[in-house]
Design goal:
The longest helix has 29 residues. Helix 3 links the parallel strand 4 and strand 5. This protein has six helices and seven strands; from the N terminus they run E-H-E-E-H-E-H-E-H-E-H-H-E. By secondary structure, it is of the alpha/beta class. It has one domain: Rossmann fold, CATH 3.40.50. Strands 3-2-1-4-5-6-7 form a seven-stranded parallel β-sheet, with helices on both faces.
Length: 236
């Protein structure tokens, strides 16, 4: 099979932002490797699905190995898989802590390590992680310590990796969303969540997809935390 078309790996790809990203990259004529714990096989020859928990290193390794075996290369990795647990700090359980670190940090570490190793071979690549503005701008009434701990770590790692690989043709960026209208937020919560943003609305999946696609095409941008958050980062 020809390896000239670009290949994107997207984690957390079965619904919400991840599913939107899969469609967007296909529309840009990429081949896509889509992962989530429950993802189903695809009939599209340009989509390879790999089911499994991204926090499991063997799953991360399989995603990248199967991408190379099927499509011959890895150009882009979007670290979209993540969880958000909103509880008062003292209410977090040891299990909450372990799960947040496993998905948000371990998952990032494992798959990014394998993907960058492939990108180095071709001298080019792009890693984008979905984080959160809450890591830099906490909001009263939105308890978010584990999100800040883990996604804030991804923001810092993004800058570190961007510098480490800048001269090797690999860019590393992040998109920091506000609250996005996805199935995880019931309609009854939308008005309250909209009020958290200076622009007065929740974000749409298309807003985050647009941010990722901008970074994908912006060859002179690396180490950037792109805030797609309705103005949250500016103040409230």
């Amino acid at each position: 099979m020809s390896t000239q078309r670009k290949v994107a790996i997207i984690t957390g790809a079965s619904q919400g932002i991840g599913a939107g990203l899969v469609k967007a990259f296909l529309d840009r004529d990429y081949r896509v490797v889509a992962n989530s714990r429950s993802i189903q096989p695809s009939n599209n020859p340009d989509v390879l699905t790999v089911a499994g928990d991204i926090s499991d290193r063997s799953v991360a390794e399989r995603i990248v190995k199967e991408a190379v075996a099927r499509f011959g290369r890895v150009d882009t990795l979007v670290n979209n898989a993540g969880i958000f647990t909103a509880k008062p700090f003292t209410a977090f359980t040891v299990e909450d802590y372990a799960q947040n670190l496993a998905v948000n940090l371990n998952g990032f570490f494992h798959v990014t390590q394998f993907a960058i190793a492939e990108m180095e071979k071709q001298g080019s690549g792009h890693v984008v992680s979905i984080t959160t503005t809450l890591a830099e701008y906490a909001i009263d009434g939105v308890p978010s310590v584990l999100a800040s701990l883990t996604k804030g770590g991804l923001n810092a790692a993004t800058k570190s990796l961007a510098i480490e690989y800048a001269k090797r043709g690999i860019r590393v960026n992040a998109v920091a969303p506000g609250v996005i209208k996805t199935p995880m937020h019931g309609p009854e919560t939308h008005a309250a969540l909209a009020s958290l943003h200076p622009v007065g609305r929740m974000g749409e999946i298309s807003d985050i997809v647009g941010g990722v696609l901008y970074l994908e095409s912006a060859g002179f941008v690396t180490g950037e935390i792109l805030h797609v958050d309705g103005g949250q980062i500016a103040g409230h």
